[in-house]
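[job 0412] stage=complex_fold ligand=iron/sulfur cluster status=START
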Amino acid sequence: MALTGVEIFKLLPKTNCKKCGFPTCLAFAMKLVQRQASLDACPDVSEEARQKLGEASAPPVRPITLGAGDRAVKMGEETVLFRHDKRFVNPCAFALEIKDTLSEADINSKVEEVLNSEIDRVGQKLRIDAIALMNDSNDTGRLEFAAKVISAKAPGIPVIICSANPQAAEAAVKLFGDKKPIIYGVNSENKEAMVNLAKTYKATLGVVAKGLEELSNLTEKVKALGIEDMVIDSGARKAKEILEHNTFIRRAAIKKNYKPLGYPVITFTKRQDSLVEAMMAVIGVAKYSSIIVLSGIEKWENLALFTLRQNIYTDPQVPMQVEQKIYKIGEPNPDSPLCITTNFSLTYFIVSGEIENSKVPSYLAVMDCEGLSVLTAWAAGKFTASKIAQFIKESGVENNVKNRELIIPGYVAILSGAIEDKLDGWKVTVGPREANGIPAFFRSRVSQT
Ligand code: SF4
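[job 0412] stage=complex_fold status=DONE, emitting structure tokens
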């Protein structure tokens, strides 16, 4: 059970020395409960208390890292059931399954698909994160060969070795020994051998069971053998089971601090067809899977899943923002148009994308409105005539544009007169309401001249 603030307080030195940065030990205890402070901040806590508190203040879902270097994927560390309670911490990873029964050429082409999956969306790089190498052949030599092909083609890619055969798993995992792989397939028969492999190759173990009860018994046994880093699979393969099991696991970990299920969940979707598989993956993204192994990836599917993941794992309390400044789109000159918008990331990327589509080199003034979109910022009094005029004056953009014309979003047409009053010598033009009207808007200006 998690300790309460008062229980934690009783274990602290109670000197109120403030070395932790909080005015009292009680204030620090409350921050520990909310997981907004680290116990390391108190230098005077006793070893006994540290042991008790260390466990109590650890996140209910154990943090795990898959892979190493700049492709490493963090997972777990979650502290809430619902995103609006605080935020979800580590986005789930997507892995593509590659069977060791495939030919070398087919393995290479699957790896290529993974490497080419990266897209840029609202300034973030999104991609298929890992490969799950499946020992479908049940043959050690074939698994080893497939692992060699993958490590040669994509040496930095995080890998999940899926085999219940410790000998085969070792033949593959030794190729990724320094890359923090996952060895998936630990069951009650092979657990001792798999634990030895995990210790030798510093790997995380993927524990699989038939049902939640067997799963929690098994993780306790693996832990007793000396392994803490695990991902867990309850054996759920149907949509209903994935939803039920994942919810049960997360609820047990967060609400009851039930350690045997306090690990990131790995989910395998089965490709009946790509649409069904995408729907199963959606359930995993929305409901608590930390790794989703897909049996195939297509660009439309990736785009939908990446977008969903990005939205769910965005902190709802922190609007996504871009820097306030005058952006150049293309190579504008002193006669180029100057548009203005707010610094909400999505607004910026959509507006700048449409200006790019129009092929009219332009300046885009992006004003800091604390990450709010145009209408919300206007309603909140952050995108007003005075503030816009002040920003334009202070930005120095006057030195870049000859025509002194400012194009404002159609949604705030009401501000045009007031901005002109405050910006001496400037003309304000009302642009389209929606960004997708920008290319037609620019075309109509050209045809009028
Ligand atoms: Fe209390 Fe430790 Fe903070 Fe000092 S540093 S106020 S003893 S919690």
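Residues 239-255 form the longest helix (17 residues).
[job 0412] exit 0
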